[in-house]
Design goal:
This protein has one domain. The termini are far apart. It has 191 residues and is of the alpha/beta class. The strands form two sheets. The chain has a seven-stranded mixed beta sheet. The protein has a two-stranded antiparallel sheet with strand order 1-2. Strand 6, helix 4 and strand 7 form a beta-alpha-beta unit. Residues 127-153 have low confidence and may be disordered. The chain has helices at 4-21, 65-78, 102-108, 127-134, 173-190; strands at residues 28-29, 42-43, 51-58, 84-91, 97-101, 118-121, 139-142, 154-158, 168-172.
Amino acid sequence: MVNACRKGKRVELQVANWLKASGVASARRTQQHNGAEGLSDVVANDELPHFHIEVKGTKTSKLPNSTLLNWSRQLIRDCPEGQIPVLFHQANGQELVGMMLLDTFWAVAEHTPIAHFELILDESLDGPKTLEKLNLKFFITDRLKGVEVTPRHSALVYKVSEEWPYLFIVVSADYIREAMLNYEAEIRNRS
């Protein structure tokens, strides 16, 4: 059994190395003490200065809403003003996935084509109203409780709690990385 701190460190190093392998040379795991607020798990100040990157590793991909709610709160609470919160999650034996606030995802993904995605709405959302509000043009299916999401081909939109006003999207980590890099390139091009 791996303790949670060692597992967290292992997944954080894995994400930093994954980013480095894809051209994000400055990516590194930060040294934290008790999850200090405002300090992300992984930084890449040269290539991704506008992103606050948190990383989570778990045994399973079927997580209770209370865990997702805690992660969501931490992500928003710890993200410094002017940065965009991103969370990468990996369950044992599963592919790495990325999670973002839906509103910021659209701004970040604006310059990265979203091809071949099936959008899956959490059962807590009213499908037609949500789609109309978001102006989405995806093939839609309802997500049944307990159904695993294949991140390479799906984008899961969910709300973790009625009291928590944010919608989140979970997609392939590769897509999130590409979208972050394209977003930063667009900002540099405007300067």
